[in-house]
Design goal:
The complex is a heterodimer of chains A (409) and B (268). In chain A, 74% of the residues lie in helices and 1% in strands. With 409 residues, chain A is mainly α. Chain A has a two-stranded antiparallel sheet. The longest helix of chain A has 28 residues. The N terminus of chain A is likely disordered. Chain B has 268 residues and is of the alpha/beta class. Chain B has a single domain, classed as 3-Layer(aba) Sandwich (Rossmann fold), CATH 3.40.50. The N terminus and C terminus of chain B are likely disordered. Classes of the chains: A mainly alpha (409), B alpha/beta (268). Chains A and B meet through helix 8, helix 11 and helix 12 of A and strand 8 and helix 4 of B.
Chain lengths: 409, 268
């Protein structure tokens, strides 16, 4: 996992030996390129504080809960990261997720469709919503803020209409989707195999890249740094898997979220599409002049955002084993947006990474879970989450200023 | 490019691009009237003129932003038309506009290859792009410490260098530079002027639009003066003084008689 959440190109490792890498890191922090440092420090602090207040907070069972609760909002947050990267916003992910949950419940329970078909319908509803946004945004230049605010209402209406008079539909407990959301965990050995494969793939990628760079006469990462990175990743993932395995283990739904984060990260950093997304977020005009089809990029990003929202809605319905009129309502929208921002995606476009969604949602859910286990009600939770969001934006703003002072934009 | 002869020789190579009697109107405004214009390989042609003289319109015609109303354009000896920016690109004409249109948050390599990235098995080929970026920048003798810094961290001259280098990625034969030194300091201007000479050494035809007569005389082979949408002088840089150019720009001297275009003007 790259911890370089704010740098546009986490794979642009500062190539060189151990000392060069360390110096580059210190330089970056000093010039305001904080990367994921604040949010990682924040996570550690949150863990420490709640552990002191409540000795069961960091227990394995509680952390398994944390991962399962993070998956749905986190998936929506990936989409938010994408729209933030192109300098847009989507205020309607909550409604779109609620609609997807409603479509899942109605087609599965009332119409008796086979599960794959209902899942497809639910996720497709998100893609269609995003396509509408994309067309309206690019053809009529409607600001994304107003457009998705209108979508928030419209899709809430569609959600209520789909649910009909019933208002709330329970999904059968024995169905695959509810099992997926509540009961499906990786067997211990499977989790370790996955960790090993991930670490191997990461190490292989670093080594082959370093070899190609050496062959091309470019500075390459030293073997010591590669060993350090691979060892660090192995230690981190291995420990997480082992600790979660002390109780129920690694949830399949959480794993799905992690896979989506990784795929998005790959698409953003390693494909022409991803490069175009960052370019559009940095300067639309520059991207247009460079021959990038800016409209297509915007449409693809809106489609992906709403699709991720719909997947998140399906996950939320699976976890709750029900879809109702308040699915995706309340603070869902703002939590998803706050998670992306706390995780380091800039509200002004061009900065952020798919891992912003993961880190941000863990922070928000840790706070929420910590306060709940202390028997504090949601009033305190909202206040604390709000304060953390403000803190994240302030840190972003300060680091932007010192970046500007150091000329690193 | 068929020839490697240096500029200003008796046996001139065929022009890369030549405009004959090109005119452009915007409503009632005659932006350009009966312009003749040539650019050869290994040649830096400067276009100078006061505000409103038609420099930008000429650049936009050459880069395909505005098609001309009348007149003929030929490239490499064959008649052609430049209706869209894509046509210009296909003819090997690259334009570096005054606002460089770089993405500040992206690094040098990303900016150079933006929109035409190299891929390897579907994924970006960062290594190949970085290597070729270095080759190109070294050829241009650009002073850059690293190609992995965001463009925002570069000086004005370095940004101009990156913008010009980017125009070379598509391997053009003509590069149009719109006021490349307008916002630069003394040493950075020198850097860009050196770069223009590198482009000429590479055999490119360079069209340089500038207000700065000193820069123009330092680097150009030929100076074309526009005044009120007409050509008011076409000088060899070796035979002209800045007073003569200023005279032609302001209209104190009328050089349009030197040109055969005047004969056609009567017919209009």
């Amino acid at each position: 996992m790259s911890l370089d959440a704010r740098s546009p190109y986490p794979q642009d490792l500062r190539h060189g030996g151990v000392r060069a890498s360390a110096r580059a890191f210190v330089d970056r922090v000093r010039t305001g390129d904080l990367g994921a440092l604040p949010v990682v420090v924040g996570l550690v602090l949150i863990g420490a504080i709640f552990q002191v207040l409540n000795p069961t907070f960091l227990s394995s069972a509680n952390l398994v809960n944390l991962t399962m609760q993070s998956a749905a909002i986190g998936t929506m947050s990936i989409g938010i990261v994408l729209v933030l990267l192109v300098g847009g916003i989507d205020l309607s992910v909550g409604s779109v997720s609620g609609l997807a949950g409603a479509i899942l419940a109605v087609t599965f329970v009332q119409f008796g469709w086979p599960l794959p078909l209902t899942l497809l319908a639910a996720v497709a509803s998100g893609a269609v919503a995003g396509f509408c946004y994309g067309l309206l945004f690019t053809k009529f230049n409607v600001p994304a803020f107003v457009l998705t605010l209108a979508g928030l209402l419209a899709f809430l209406g569609v959600q209520l209409w789909v649910l009909g008079r019933v208002g709330s539909i329970n999904l059968p407990f024995e169905s695959w989707i509810v099992q997926f959301g509540q009961q499906m965990f990786l067997p211990d050995y499977m989790s370790y195999i996955l960790v090993a494969l991930t670490v191997l793939a990461y190490g292989w990628q670093l080594v082959s890249e370093a070899r190609r760079r050496e062959a091309a006469g470019l500075p390459a990462m030293s073997r010591v740094v590669i060993a350090g990175r691979v060892g660090g990743l192995a230690a981190l993932l291995g420990f997480v898997a082992w600790y979660l395995n002390q109780s129920r283990g690694v949830g399949v739904m959480f794993l799905t979220f992690l896979v989506l984060v990784t795929l998005t990260h790959y698409a953003l950093t390693r494909t022409r599409w991803g490069r175009a997304v960052y370019a559009v977020g940095g300067s639309v005009e520059a991207a247009r002049r460079a021959g990038i089809r800016v409209d297509r990029i915007f449409i693809s990003v809106f489609v992906l955002c709403s699709t991720f929202a719909a997947i998140g809605g399906v996950m939320a319905a699976a976890r709750l084993a029900a879809a109702n009129q308040s699915s995706g309502g309340g603070d869902t929208n703002l939590t998803a947006i706050a998670a992306a921002v706390i995780g380091g995606a800039s509200l002004f476009g061009g900065r952020g990474s798919a891992f912003s969604a993961l880190l941000g949602v863990l922070v928000i859910m840790a706070i929420s879970l910590g306060l709940t286990t202390l028997n504090l009600d949601s009033s305190v939770r909202y206040m604390v989450t709000g304060a953390v969001l403000v803190l994240a934006v302030v840190i972003d703003s300060i680091s932007r200023r010192s970046r500007a002072a150091a000329g690193r934009a | 490019m068929t020839s490697r002869t240096p500029p200003v020789t008796p046996a001139r190579p065929e022009p890369l691009l030549s405009l004959r009697d090109v005119s452009k109107r915007f409503g009632a405004v005659r932006a350009l009237t009966g312009i003749d214009f040539d650019v050869h390989p290994h040649e830096v042609v400067a276009i100078v003129g006061d505000n409103g003289a038609g420099k930008s319109t000429l650049v936009k015609i050459l880069s395909g932003v505005h098609p001309p109303d009348s007149g003929t354009i030929s490239a490499y000896g064959a008649p052609t038309s430049i209706a869209t920016p894509a046509d210009a690109r296909d003819l090997g004409i690259a334009t570096v506009f005054q606002d460089l249109a770089l993405c500040d948050s992206l690094d040098v390599v990303s900016n150079l290859w933006l929109g035409q990235e190299l891929t390897r098995g579907g994924a970006l080929d960062e290594i190949e792009m970085e290597q070729r970026s270095w080759t190109l920048l070294r050829e241009l003798r650009a002073r850059l410490q690293s190609v992995r810094v965001p463009v925002a961290a570069l000086s004005g001259g370095q940004r101009q260098t990156v913008a010009i280098a980017r125009s070379l990625i598509g391997d053009p034969s003509i590069v149009i530079l719109d006021e490349p030194t307008a916002a630069l300091g003394v040493s950075q201007t020198a850097e860009v002027l050196n770069l223009i000479e590198r482009l000429r050494e590479r055999g490119l035809g360079v069209i340089l639009v500038s207000h700065n007569i000193a820069d123009v005389l330092a680097v150009a082979d030929r100076v074309v003066v526009l005044r009120l949408g007409r050509t008011n002088g076409d000088f060899l840089a070796t035979e002209v003084t800045s007073e003569m150019i200023i005279g032609a720009i302001t209209g104190a001297s009328d050089n349009s008689r030197r040109r055969p275009a005047l004969a056609r003007e009567d017919g209009e």
